Amino acid sequence: MELFTNQVLAGIATGAIYACMALAVVMIYQAIDHLNFAQGEMAMFSTFMSWQMMQWGVPYWGAFILTLALSFAGGIIIERLLFKPLAKAPVLTNVAGFIALYAIVNSVAGLIWDFTIKQYPTPFGSSPFLGSQLISTHQAGMIGITLLMLILLFVFFRFTRVGLAMRAAASLPESARLVGINTSWMIALGWGMAAAIGSVAGMMIAPVVFLEPNMMLGVLIYGFAAAVLGGLTSPFGAVMGGFLVGIFENLVGTYIPGVGNELKLPIALALIITVLVVKPAGLFGRPIVKRV
Amino acid sequence: MTTMLNVKDLRAYYGQVQALHGLSFALNEGSLTTLLGANGAGKTTTLRAICNMVRSTGAIEFEGKPLSGKSTENVVRLGIAHVPQGRGTFTTMTVEENLQLGAITRTDKKNIVADIERMYEHFPVLKERHTQQAGTLSGGEQQMLAVARALMLRPRLMLLDEPSFGLAPLIVRELFKILGKINREDKVTILVVEQNAQLALELADQAYVIETGRIVMSGSAKDIANNEDVRKSYLGY
């Protein structure tokens, strides 16, 4: 039983990271109807930036906040330079754009910081959490930071004017323009926020997977699985999907013989395909009620 | 009377297809004007051109300021509210959020709250349903919501695209009564595009008739209603 609890809690911890990535993916998907394949690489680059700052002597939380701000700005710049011009382009053009962004960010990170694995610090320590062997302080911290961020995002979207405007712009751009919302900037803002959310995921997972340019590939695939499972149209679903995928991944790895670390990634892919075949809207992507 | 909106030689295009062929008309401040015409005459396009939602040439002046080159959202910010065809309801949001969105460009928080209450007085059914997802409202209720949302801007000019579309006759009468009230009491200049010519002419004080992208007739609503050709083509008697 302890093994089970342990695996579930560890699943929730990594699930928190998947939830962040899924949420970032869903935010951009809602704004522009495309999956950002480069979301993981953007997060990886952000994590490297924070690492570099710490190398220069900036304390952890200072680097954390600075990285959030820089990622936010970076997300906006990427949207303005690359994806705003592609707004009316066909799907495949956009896909090519995302793959290009993926490759460029990945290579530039390798060029600057090379491809060797680096240690990344955790601000929470890695001792047992509250004296319990079930979960480490870093895992607890991962969950805590994610929950805090989710609450802030919820409050932002539910209770602020800009949040309302962003939701309106994502759901019906033309109507949004007709009430005076600058939808183009709302999309840019969505990119900035997605980049910032991704950077949190990167900085939280880096102590676990170690810092290197390809660190986010697996995480992003799990993030996609989470987003698809929860429903690409539902930010709440994406978050739930993240936690579910995290738990699922750990339990399958523990209890099904033959599924070691090597087979965990195909499980995420199998999950994506299964959901798309059985319930394409995802668990929480409820169909919109419409009466005419 | 001063001219609020002045449209001169408006030509609009959908790709290669030209939909408006040099349309000119003017709206007086405080007037309630209707634009009549058959399907495909260019009524909707005219409204869309005013808000720069379609490629167009010609000159449109609002209170003396040219609108050309302004983005849709900036046209709206000048005080031009547009209730589009199909109502443009934010179906996944609540009725109250829809109203808040109508006032999203305003910063006078206190007045916004008061205005929402005022809308609930105009449209009591919206108050009953203010926490409900807007997509679950009936067509008539959604049209009320669309008008209320547009009024939340505190517009100087309101453009309505076929507000009677798909509504039961009684509801249409009620809606038009409210539009008349808004025009008189809130001093909002209104331009309404309609296929229901009879009702529109009863309500309006000015009327224009549009055919294949050109204005073919203009005058007071009364004169237009009494015109033989209009009666035959649009009123059916």
From TrEMBL, chain A:
Subcellular localization: Cell membrane
Gene Ontology cellular component list: plasma membrane
Membrane topology category: Multi-pass membrane protein
GO BP annotation list: amino acid transport
Transmembrane segments: 12-32, 58-79, 91-113, 133-157, 185-209, 265-285
InterPro entries referenced in this protein's UniProt entry, alphabetically: ABC_transp_permease, BCAA_transport_permease
Keywords: Amino-acid transport, Cell membrane, Membrane, Transmembrane, Transmembrane helix, Transport
Highest taxon, organism lineage: Bacteria
Entry's Gene Ontology molecular function annotations: transmembrane transporter activity
Coiled coil: none
Protein family per UniProt: Belongs to the binding-protein-dependent transport system permease family. LivHM subfamily.
Protein name: Branched-chain amino acid ABC transporter permease
Species, as recorded: Bradyrhizobium archetypum
Lineage: Bacteria, Pseudomonadati, Pseudomonadota, Alphaproteobacteria, Hyphomicrobiales
From TrEMBL, chain B:
Xref: Pfam families: ABC_tran
GO MF annotation terms: ATP binding; ATP hydrolysis activity; branched-chain amino acid transmembrane transporter activity
Residue ranges the record marks as coiled coil: none
Record GO biological process: L-amino acid transport
Alphabetical keyword list: Amino-acid transport, ATP-binding, Nucleotide-binding, Transport
InterPro entries, sorted: AAA+_ATPase, ABC_transporter-like_ATP-bd, ABC_transporter-like_CS, BCAA_Transport_ATP-bd_LivF, P-loop_NTPase
Family designation: Belongs to the ABC transporter superfamily.
PANTHER family: HIGH-AFFINITY BRANCHED-CHAIN AMINO ACID TRANSPORT ATP-BINDING PROTEIN LIVF (PTHR43820:SF4)
Designated name of the protein: ABC transporter ATP-binding protein
